[in-house]
Specification:
Phenol Hydroxylase P2 Protein; oxidoreductase; alpha+beta; phenol 2-monooxygenase activity; 3 helices; globular
Length: 97
């Protein structure tokens, strides 16, 4: 059995597809150039090798208002990986090993 290193193992998030979340999805795409985005009925899956970063500042630039990272809880359906960091400025999803 081959083990994929944590730096390459995919992490991601499923986000409800609606008008409010469009800016969040665009910000995630901009801050994670290796991410793939897959639109499905009612949701968007964003997946990236190793880690996925959601930056408050990037979301605010696109949404045109202040955005607090705890609002992300209202957008997500599920995620895969571990929440390594979640503070006022950034959310980081990655694997421990």
């Amino acid at each position: 059995m081959t083990t994929i290193p944590a730096a390459e193992r995919p992490v991601g998030v499923d986000i409800q597809e609606n008008e409010q979340n469009r800016a969040v999805i665009e910000a995630i795409e901009a801050d994670n150039p290796e991410a793939t985005v897959r639109h499905m009925p009612g949701m968007v899956r964003v997946q990236s090798p190793g880690k996925l970063v959601i930056n408050r500042e990037s979301v605010e630039e696109r949404i045109g208002r202040e955005w607090e990272t705890h609002e992300f809880q209202l957008a997500i359906i599920s995620y895969f990986g571990h929440i390594k960091e979640w503070d006022d400025d950034q959310i980081l999803i990655a694997w421990d090993h």
